[in-house]
Amino acid sequence: MSVIRQDPTTKEWVIIATERAKRPDQFKREQSPTDLPPHQASCPFCPGNETLTPPEILRLPPDEHENWNVRGIPNKYAALTGSGEAARRETGALFREMDGVGAHEVIVETPLHNQRMALMADSQVERILTACHMRYCALEKDSRIKSIIIFKNHGERAGTSLEHPHIQLVAAPVAPMLMRRKHDVAITHYDDTGRCLYCDLVAAELDARIRILFETDGFVVFHPYASRLPFETWITPRRMQPSFSQISPEDLRELASVLRKTLHGLDVALNNPHFNFVIHSAPLGDHQHEYYLWHIQILPRLTTIAGFELGSGIFINTMLPEESAAFLRKYCS
């Protein structure tokens, strides 16, 4: 029999239809991933092709030598750009618009065309997260910016258009409704209890134990109670940090190991699945309020989002997170 669960962080409902489910091992990709070369002559992100991208805004290590580990560049086909103002314009009784002001950037994760994050050294993942953190902290200084989303698309089913490993940042002059909703639910919880909703959620997951993959001194990795998709995975800090900008260098180093270990577990268990991950952070201007906890959400793209999900906004998940966590836990040990 199916069950309908409510996400405590959004109050949205998720249908978990276990009678439609596969066994956990049946979500593994049947076709082996195509081997990619370490360098592709036509790829704009490969070394030697730096002139094919807009001028870089970040390089690690930060020197002028030809060798680099991580590059930050503006997206050549940016959704938002730095020119314009955040003022809103009324174009009719119900119609409103504003300039597409903001930023759309790319973090090129590695010089190697075929080196996915799950198989990198922890030190390389740390460089990538350091670059993301540096750009987040730089972009949040722009008074026009109200939200910054950091995300990664891995594989065609996740929406990637370039194979070379990369992460994107979009800084917008508005806070998306999902971000606002998550924050509003967290504020309501704080008003009711005097506590952080996400801290309570982490404590409840640690108490239940059945959805935990693993934990470290600084982070907890689990499959959420109302998972939207099979193998949806969250990484949350133990310390109160509403904004990703507040993470310390020490915690960033630990996060690199935790993220790499989590992705490696998914990679081995599911045969390099296509996935998205998002770093969720508090809206800019709310960073000092202890209502929210930044976190990473990993969404493997193992099933198809179809008409019911698009029409209702309610996801149908075919696997209980207790089952997916039990299966994946042995791959993250």
Please explain how this structure is put together:
The protein is of the alpha+beta class and 333 residues long. It has one domain: HIT-like (HIT family, subunit A, 2-Layer Sandwich), CATH 3.30.428.10. The protein has 6 helices and 15 strands. It has helices at residues 122-139, 177-193, 197-208, 249-270, 307-312, 321-329; strands at residues 3-6, 13-16, 58-60, 70-74, 88-90, 96-98, 103-108, 147-154, 166-172, 212-215, 219-222, 233-237, 275-280, 295-300, 315-317. The strands form 3 sheets. The chain has a 10-stranded antiparallel β-sheet with strand order 3-4-7-9-8-13-14-12-11-10, sandwiched between helices. Strands 1-2-15 form a 3-stranded mixed β-sheet. Helix 1 crosses helix 4. The protein is globular and about 55 Å long. The protein starts with a strand and ends with a helix. The model has no long low-confidence stretch (mean pLDDT 91).
Topology, pairings included?
Blueprint: E1 3-6, E2 13-16, E3 58-60, E4 70-74, E5 88-90, E6 96-98, E7 103-108, H1 122-139, E8 147-154, E9 166-172, H2 177-193, H3 197-208, E10 212-215, E11 219-222, E12 233-237, H4 249-270, E13 275-280, E14 295-300, H5 307-312, E15 315-317, H6 321-329
Parallel strand pairs: 2-15
Antiparallel strand pairs: 1-2, 3-4, 4-7, 5-6, 7-9, 8-9, 8-13, 10-11, 11-12, 12-14, 13-14
Helix pairs in contact: 1-4
